[in-house]
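Components:
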Amino acid sequence: AQKVTQAQTEISVVEKEDVTLDCVYETRDTTYYLFWYKQPPSGELVFLIRRNSFDEQNEISGRYSWNFQKSTSSFNFTITASQVVDSAVYFCALSRGYNKLIFGAGTRLAVHP
Amino acid sequence: DAGITQSPRYKITETGRQVTLMCHQTWSHSYMFWYRQDLGHGLRLIYYSAAADITDKGEVPDGYVVSRSKTENFPLTLESATRSQTSVYFCASSDRGGEETQYFGPGTRLLVL
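Structure:
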C-alpha cells in the first residue's frame, strides 16, 4: 500500500528556532517521487521540492533543507531560524506512476514572534 | 501569465443542486487533476485527466463528474450536491502526470447547506 504519514499534527515554535517536520512514506515501487508543499493561511498550495527515489543527496535552499533517507523511508524537512512567515500547513506527498499523488495529512506549523 | 485559475472561488449551494467548478490552465499541461481537501485527510484525488477526452477516477470519485473537451479546461460537476461534499476543491496540472510536479490553482471553497 502507498501511504504518507506526517505524525506531527501541529508544531509551535518561537521565531529563530530550528524546526523539523517529519514525513514517513510506504511504497513497494522502486521508482517514485517525493514532494513537499506549503499551504500558507491564504490557502494556496505552493510547491517546495521534488525528489526522486534514486537521489538521496540532501538538499538545501536558503533556510530550508531536506533529508531523504531510503533506509528509514523518510523525507524530513527542516526550517532553520524559523520566521513568522513560515507559519503554514506543510504537506508531504508521494507520487505513484503517472496518475497519483498521495498526500500526508499535513503538519501545521505556528511560528510565534 | 495566469497559470492555473479556478472559479468560483467561493460557492454556497443547497443539497440536491448541481454545481460546476471550473479550472483553466495556460501552460498546455497534459495532465489535470481535481482534489478535495478536508480536515485530517490532506488532499484526496477525485478525478484526473491525462489529455483531452481522457479521464479516470481517483480515490474519491463518487458523486462527481468530469469532462475535458479542451486541453486547458477541466470542469468538475457535482450532479446532486450533498453536505458531505462541503470542502475545499483544488485543481492542479502537470506536464507528465504524477511523477512531475503538480501546480495547484487557488482553490474553491464550497459549502453545501
